[in-house]
Amino acid sequence: MTGSFIAFDGPNGVGKSSAMKTVAEALGSSGRDVVVTREPGGTKLAEELRGLLLDPSHPMDTTTQLLIFNAARRSHILDVIRPNVEAGRIVLCDRFISSSLVFQTLKPDGGPDLSVDEVLDAHRRYCFNEMPDLTVYLHAPHEVRAQRIAHRAGAPVDRFEEYDDAFDRAAADRFALCGALLRSPYAMIDASPAADEVAAACLRVVEGHLAGAKIARQEVRAVV
Known about the structure:
Blueprint: E1 4-9, H1 16-29, E2 34-38, H2 44-54, H3 62-86, E3 90-94, H4 97-103, H5 116-126, E4 134-139, H6 142-150, H7 165-182, E5 186-190, H8 195-223
Parallel strand pairs: 1-3, 1-4, 2-3, 4-5
Keywords: ATP-binding, Kinase, Nucleotide biosynthesis, Nucleotide-binding, Plasmid, Transferase
InterPro entries: P-loop_NTPase, Thymidylate_kin-like_dom, Thymidylate_kin_CS, Thymidylate_kinase
Domain Thymidylate kinase-like: 8-198
C-alpha cells in the first residue's frame, strides 16, 4: 500500500485529537496500517522536549520555543514519520508545522514576534522542509471552542492553553491562513457540529486523499 503523512491542526478546542483518533480507528478497521503520533513528541527525545515546551513554569521566548520545536521535529521526522511512510503506513500526526506558524509568530498579546519567514526558514534548514501530504484544519467560532475548553475544568493547562481570548482569536485567524502560506494540500473542516459528524467529515476527506494519492502515484510510476 502507498504510505502518506497527514496532519491534523487547528486552534485549541476544535476537537482535532478526538477526530484524528476516530479516523485512525476507521482506517485501521478497513485494513490500513496506521501510525498515530503527535507534536511535539513521537520519539523519546521529542517527548522529553515536549515536557519542557509545554511546562509554563519554564519561561521561554518564542525563539527558544522554535529552537526546541525544531530539535523535537527533526527527531520525529527521521525516526517516525519518514520510516513509516516509506514502509507504506498512514501516519496521522496531531499538529505539525502549522502550529509553529501560529504559536511562534504571535505573542500572547496578539502582537508580532517571529516572522512567518523565520519559522519557515528554520523548518527548511533543520527539518528538511518536510510537509504533510495533507493537512486537515478544524475550525469553529471562538464561542464554541471556549465552551468546550471550559468543560475541561480541572485538567492541567500547558503553555499554549493559558493565553487570553484576544490571543486565541488571533491564533484561530492565523490557522485559517496556514494552508495558503505553506502551499501544500489542505482541507478545512467545520468543527462546530457534534464530534461524530466532525470525525465523519474528516474521514471522508482523508479517504478521498488516500484514494487520489494512490492513483496519482500509480500514474507517475506508469509514466516512468
